[in-house]
Amino acid sequence: MARVLIVGAGLTGSLCAALLRREAARPVHLAVWDKAGDSGGRMTTTSSPHNPQSTVDLGAQYITRTPHYAQKHQSFYDELLAHGILKPLTSPIEGTVMKAGDCNFVAPQGVSSIIKHYLKESGAAICFRQCVTQINLRNDKWEVSKETGSPEQFDIVVLTMPVPQILLLQGDIVNLISECQRQQLESVSYSSRYALGLFYEAGTKIDVPWAGQYITSNPCIRFISIDNKKRNIVSSEIGPSLAIQTTVPFGVTHLEHGIEEVQELIFQQLENILPGLPQPVATKCQKWRHSQVTNAAANSPGQMTLHLKPLLVCGGDGFTHSNFDGCVASALCVLEALKNHI
Questions:
Q1: What angle do CA 191, 43, 219 make, to 5 degrees?
Q2: 110: which of 41, 174, 252, 299 is 20 to 30 A away, CA to CA?
Q3: At the top level of its lineage, which domain of life is listed (predicted)?
Q4: Do 4 and 105 touch, CB atoms closer than 8 A?
C-alpha cells in the first residue's frame, strides 16, 4: 500500500486528501501533518475558552463564487451546500464590492468546518503539531523528519504549506529543487496582517445595522465581522463574537512586534470605530505572516513537481490565487500529477 504524506491541513491539503481517497485506483495510506494545533490553515475558526459553542473565523470570512467557477467547480459547491456546510450569505456586509453574477457563501459552523469535512471524507491519519524540518531520499522513498519524534518514510509527499516554508526545508530537497524552480518559488510573495477575535458574554448587545463592514478610513483596521450575525445564528446562550482584520500596511509594520502590544493597538483603533464596546470575556490575536498571495509562482499551473520517482509535489494558493477556488484548482492539479502514481 502506497504511503502518501500531505503536509498542511488547510483547504488545499484537506481537499487533496479527500480527492485522493475518492480517486485512487488502489488503496493508499494517507497521512496529513500540520504544525498547528488544529486543522484549517488560513481557514481557521477558533472558539472561546469559556464556551466552545462561541466561535470566530480568524482567516477567510466568506466565500465568493464567480460565474466562471460556479460552472467549473459546481460539484464542490453543490456538495458543501447539500451538507449544509455552506449557505448563501444573506446578512449585510457594508462596503463589499460585488461584480455581476457573484454569489457569497458563509459557513454556519465556521469556515474551518469545510476543512474538517474534507479531512473526514479522506479518512487520513491526521497529526497536529508536526513541524517538518527535513526531507531526504532513502531507498527510493522520502524520509521526512520533524521537530519531535522519529523520521517517517513515505512513497509520495505533497507539500501544501506557504511557499516560504517549503524553501526553509533542509535535507536532500535543497539540492533536488532546480535553479529555475527555486527562482519561481522565491518569486512567490504574500501580504501580512493580524486578526483579532473577541468573545462576549451571552446577552451582550452590539447595536450596529451590519454583520460585516469594510473600513477604508482607518490605518489599522480593514474589516470587522460580527461573526454570529454574519452566519445568521441567534442564541440566548451564546454571546456575540467579533473578528477584526487589520490592514496589510499595519500587519507589515508590526510583523515582529509582540502579540499583546499589537492587540492593544487594535483595541485603541476599534474604540474609534465602535465606541463604548463592552469588555470581551476572551480574546485571540492571530498573526498571518502569509496572509494572501500577492504574486503566485509563474508558469506553475496549480502545482510544481519537484521530483518524479519518488514523487514530491508542491501545491496551494502560491501556485494559483488566494481564495476557495484557487485552492480547489490547485488540489485538482495535484491530483492530476499523482494519478499515474496511485
A1: 40
A2: 252
A3: Eukaryota
A4: no
pLDDT attached to residue 314: 97
- Cβ of 198: how many Cβ atoms within 10 Å? 29
Site of grid cell 499595519: 250
pLDDT at residue 137 tops 90: yes
pTM of the model: 0.95
How many residues are recorded in the chain?
342
Q: At what angle do helices 11-23 and 324-338 cross, to 10 degrees?
A: 40
What is the H or E stretch that residue 289 is in? none
Distance between CA atoms of residues 194 and 196, nearest Å: 7
**Mean pLDDT, residues 210-222 taken together:** 95
The predicted-structure confidence for 25-69, as pLDDT tens digits, reads as follows 888 999 999 999 999 999 999 999 999 999 999 999 999 999 999
- 300 band by pLDDT with thresholds 50, 70 and 90: low
Domains within the chain, CATH numbers bracketed: 1-37+128-188+297-341 (3.50.50.60), 45-111+190-295 (3.90.660.10)
Inter-residue contact 40 to 13 (CB < 8 Å):
no
- Under DSSP, is residue 112 helix (H, G, I), strand (E, B) or coil? helix
| DSSP H or E segment with residue 44 | none
Residue pointed to by grid coordinates 479522506: 122
Please state the rounded mean pLDDT for residues 168-184.
95
Residue showing cell 519518488? 310
